[in-house]
Amino acid sequence: MRITLSIRRFDPERDHAPHEEAFRLDVAWRSTTVLDALIRIRQEIDSTLAFRHSCRSAICGSCSMIINDRHTLACKTLVGHEIERHGPTIRVEPMRNLPPLKDLTVRMEPFWDKARLVTPWLESADGAGTIPDAVLTKETRSHLHNVDACIMCGACVSSCSSLAVSPGFLGPAALAKAYRFLADPRDRARTRRLEALTQADGVWDCTRCNFCVEVCPKDVQPMEAIVRIRRAAITDGMTDTIGAGHITSFVDVVRHEGRLNEGRLPLQMLWRHPAALLAQLPLAVKMLVRGKAPLPWHPPLPSIRAIRGLFGRWRRASSWTN
Most exposed: 109, 181, 184, 246, by fewest CB within 10 Å? Predict the structure, then answer.
């Protein structure tokens, strides 16, 4: 069957901007992967086409790219599936949120730099001692929640909506890697890790868009790892940040009134951050003018005792499972 691959190309030595180039070739479409097609294009049509690949088995993560607007691995993407879903033209682009290098390759230095920032190795309590000589058992490995399956392909980084607007954000891959060592029972640097991860550009910058979970080829679920880091930080009393304050204040308001009070929540959440509270003033005025601003004080719901009882049962259940 004859297919068309429309490839986003860019050569910094001769192009001012990326452009699309179409390649047509005959393939056994039910068994050919997109990576197979790209290799044939480079071997038979245009030897200057640049892309990365290695294992061809979804292990190394080298061939991560965007295929028909989906962040995935080219070696595990069958041409036949793409044709059935999108027709005979398959669009291929390089990953986003990383600087372009050439054609389908991007610069991975920012990706690896952020991975190094989270200290991806076991540490002693003082950062200089010896790590206990032990191995992970089946039980202790379950605490990692599969984050150790990450192949660092970068698909989650490419799809991250926070990174698209905030390049300094550590990103889902680095934060999932951070959780892998935070959850390792042999590590002795929990407090030091949490203090670093809750700073600016850390776990609280995630918008929970869930794209990283959708695109991960190994079901690592980076967003869930980020949520677990947040939970650990709050459990350890690190609640001074705006992100942590939003969660704790949300719970307090609902427990006090039996419902969310959107007038009281920002006051309780931001009173320690005057600049951030002041920044909300224009929005508050607009809401007030349009009759959308709830009063910051409301009497509790008549069923408040039952609602507070739910919080009590939740706390007891949490203590049993922790």
Answer: 109
In a domain, residue 322? The reply is no
Distances (CA, A) of 22 to 3, 19, 41, 72, 87: 10, 10, 11, 20, 15
Q: Say if residues 177 and 115 touch (Cβ distance below 8 Å).
A: yes
pLDDT tens, position by position, 28-52? 978 999 999 999 999 999 999 999 9
Last residue of a domain, one of 73, 88, 106: 106
Q: Which of 104, 91, 87 is nearest to 5 (CA)?
A: 91
Q: State how beta strands 89-93 and 70-73 pair.
A: unpaired
Query: Distance between CA 285 and CA 294 in Å, rounded?
Result: 12
- Strands 2-9 and 89-93: what pairing? parallel
**Nearest CA-CA partner of 109 in 157, 72, 175:** 157
Query: Distance between CA atoms of 233 and 238, rounded to whole angstroms?
Result: 5
Q: What is the pTM of this model?
A: 0.88
The CATH number linked to 102 is 3.10.20.30
Q: What is the pLDDT of residue 322?
A: 42
Is the domain of 151 the same as that of 228? yes
